[in-house]
Amino acid sequence: MNKTTLVSITIIIIGVTSLVWWSKSIENRELNANNLTKSHPARTGNVAANTLTALETFYDFGTISMKNGNVSRVFRVTNPTNEDIKVPSLTTSCMCTTAYIIKENGSKSRPFGMPGHGGTVPKANEIIKAGGSLDIEVVYDPNAHGPAGVGMIDRFVYLEDEAGNKLQFEIKANVTP
């Protein structure tokens, strides 16, 4: 074998090894992210004082099309304690995602979004009565990122009580044109 062939084979082996290592690191990050979300779908078990819970905190829309517009999911938040809990903050992880508080009469609150985009996010200032519940509607706009916004998405909504406890909701989808 000549020197050029040996150098070429060495470069190819290094390139293939690097690609395999890189793909494994991405796969491990995705597995870790999925395990964190799916193995802990909601806070359960012994409930600390002033802790909000939800039976469902993750939803996968599957494959959705940009041409069909917005998709939404309602998550129910429960106050299992014997004290009212004030909820001052409801925010999202991206400007393409909006959250609404659904009032007892069925009406929706103003939209809550991502901090820092389009001004400040208004305070939620909701109170969940002892033993009561509250519905949060999460709306995802697949067109928000334009034509480049196709593929897998993973977005979050954060509901925070006045003690600083956060309840996180996650939505996923595979966006097609």
TrEMBL record:
User: TM segments?
Assistant: 6-22
Q: Which Pfam families match?
A: DUF1573
Keyword terms: Membrane, Transmembrane, Transmembrane helix
Q: Which InterPro entries match?
A: DUF1573 (IPR011467), Ig-like_fold (IPR013783)
* Full protein name: DUF1573 domain-containing protein
Q: Which organism is it from?
A: Candidatus Nomurabacteria bacterium RIFCSPHIGHO2_01_FULL_40_24b
Which taxonomic lineage does the organism of this UniProt entry have?
Bacteria, Candidatus Nomuraibacteriota
